[in-house]
Amino acid sequence: MKTSMGLMLLSTALLSGCVSLVEERVAPDAPVSLYPAASGLKGAMPVNLYVESQITVTDMPLRARTIQRVAGAADPTVVSIYVRTETPVKVRLIPIKLPFTGIPAKLPGIGLGSGFFIHPSGYVLSNEHVIRNAAEIRVMTQTGTDHVARVVATDPVYDLALLKVDSPNKIPFAFLPMGDSDALRGGDHVIAVGNPLGFGHTVTAGIISHTGRSLFEEKEANGRYVRYIQTDAAINPGSSGGPLITLAGAWIGLNTAQIENSQGIGFTVPSNQVREFLGNVLEGNGHPVE
What we know:
The protein has 290 residues and is of the alpha+beta class. It has a single domain, classed as Thrombin, subunit H (Beta Barrel). It contains four helices and 15 strands. The protein has a six-stranded antiparallel barrel. Strands 9-10-11-14-13-12 form a six-stranded antiparallel beta barrel. A hairpin with a 7-residue loop joins strand 9 (189-194) and strand 10 (202-213). The protein is globular and about 65 Å long. The model is unreliable at 1-18 (pLDDT under 50).
């Protein structure tokens, strides 16, 4: 009864405007955020963080079981991400928004998304918006094994997050090799694997619809902007952070968004812009976060 009453009061407060989210605006020149776990990567070689694929795309026959084979190899590398969040809010005693008013508080919640291993030591990629305001992050593998993950670095501009999972038995994790997104052309076949609406390890297939797609007005001359890969492979809520994979088995981007009320218009952050993010982590270029 107390829980139900609390939820009722919270719903009333939200509807009346007494609780408002603390908006976080991201500037196009915002730096990468480096958490304490990133210190061990500064000065390391790329091979200590991710593995590159020798082949990104190849001209192969599209047989009946080709997609099944690629999806089967990718499944052990993809994780479902579950997040306990604490979203900053301001509670107002009256439903009127006045400057510098409101009591800071944190609103508990839960979220879900996808990710995948890029290195056998346990480094995982996902979207920054998946783990934003996280108080606790857990990842679940295909076998149902649950791990606690810690944040290594985030890039709010490119919407990327690097996480670290430790293997309790020191057994290397299955991983996906990184491909060259510049090698893609419209019409190349791809698959997406993720956790849409909590349905873990869902596989969808499609093609590359377009590359270098810009979705936002680029006002800053020196700003960093994502040049998205557009695909018609289905990307749904919860798929965010999952890999887009070529039939050669290389990941070439992180599935990030789909246009609302559309069909077959999804967007992926290309691997070469992810490579830039990972390079900043290895070089220690970013804003330290305690």
